[in-house]
Design a protein that fits this description.
Length: 356
């Protein structure tokens, strides 16, 4: 399978993801059928199983993930992505990909990166996200049987591989380093995203920031888990922007975390700002608990820019309209492009070097 055929396969997959109908969408698919009926019936079974196995994987979260990947996997984006590299047809290497399971399809970028470069992918799934990617792999293989030789899933100990891409916590990263350090590898640790506010944000911008905070219940590394605000910042405007996500409190898992964290902080007499579904706690850390957003005050943007540079190993992306270096627009944190690599490590460059 040459590069153009692989690109076409992912273009088709993007269209497929865009056409998926969910439980509350009654339209029928006419364009995708398998031997036992329609892919529509199969995806609904898969979605029910995914939601049943992981309470954080709500229909809205899965739908957002699918729609986002549908928008990413266009011909224009794919061609723009690969045009920066010299991808030649060589004997494929086997790349073991150890996936996290914090949000739906969190390891999908690694998966398609291995395949687009003509390599074999050996996937070890997280127990929290076991059904979505295998379903998409089944679709890919059905449409392009040559992928059957390039995609493998395993629940056993990894063996017979040439390189590793692993994502996990800081603790599991140490484990990955110990076991996989002798192989070419990318090993990712905990990272969080932050937002820098100036006080001049509009109501619409703060509503977009609410998406950056609450999508996937804040569980993704690109979710904003901390905000930096000027001294004497008035939080009323901020909370008004967050109000668009007030219904998040009706998710039982989220509500339980909100109640638990609030009780712990109050028992320890820690000051909080609270709008009845989000807690704001002044803290120098980055990784805030679910339903909690850390905040820190700054004196000057220049000092803050230097501080953020010194903490770049802990930060995935910065959301702001301030002039403080590379930033993402409000509402864009969970819409990365194919060339926006996690931790700033160029995955395609790493994979292509395996052949040099």
């Amino acid at each position: 399978m040459d590069l153009r055929k692989r690109i076409d396969a992912f273009i088709d997959l993007g269209k497929f993801l865009g056409e998926i109908k969910f439980e509350n969408e009654n339209d029928k698919w006419d364009s995708y059928e398998n031997d036992s009926g329609s892919f529509q019936d199969e995806i609904r079974r898969v979605l029910r199983r995914a939601k049943g196995e992981n309470g954080w994987f709500t229909e809205d979260s899965i739908k957002f993930s699918f729609k986002s990947w549908s928008k990413a996997l266009t011909e224009e984006n794919l061609l723009n992505w690969v045009s920066k590299y010299e991808i030649t047809e060589t004997s494929p290497k086997t790349v073991a990909v150890i996936m996290a399971g914090n949000i739906p399809l969190v390891g999908f970028h690694d998966f398609i990166s291995v395949l687009i470069t003509g390599n074999r992918v050996l996937v070890k799934l997280s127990s929290n996200d076991k059904v979505l990617l295998p379903f998409l792999a089944t679709y890919l293989i059905k449409q392009n049987p040559e992928f059957g030789e390039l995609i493998k899933f395993t629940e056993n100990r990894l063996k017979d591989f040439d390189a590793v891409i692993a994502t996990g916590s800081n603790n599991t990263a140490r484990y990955f380093d110990y076991y996989f350090g002798k192989y070419p590898h990318i090993i990712r640790k905990n990272r969080n995203s932050v937002a820098v506010l100036t006080g001049d944000e509009s109501e619409d911008e703060l509503k977009l920031l609410a998406d950056d905070v609450f999508l996937y219940f804040g569980l993704g590394c690109r979710n904003v888990s901390k905000i930096y605000v000027p001294e004497n910042y008035n939080f009323d405007k901020f909370f008004n922007g967050m109000f668009s996500w007030k219904e998040v409190i009706y998710n039982n898992k989220y509500m339980n975390n909100y109640d638990y964290n609030k009780a712990i902080y109050l028992m320890n007499s820690q000051p909080l700002l609270d709008n009845e579904f989000l807690l704001l706690k002044e803290d120098t850390g980055f990784s805030s608990p679910i339903a909690v957003l850390f905040f820190e005050r700054y004196k000057s943007l220049r000092e803050l820019e230097d501080h953020l540079k010194s903490e770049q190993e802990n930060i995935q992306c910065v959301v702001s309209k301030a002039d403080i270096g590379k930033t993402e627009p409000f509402g864009n944190a969970q819409h990365p492009q194919l060339w926006d690599y996690a931790d700033g490590v160029d995955t395609l460059e790493f994979l292509l070097k395996l052949h040099s």
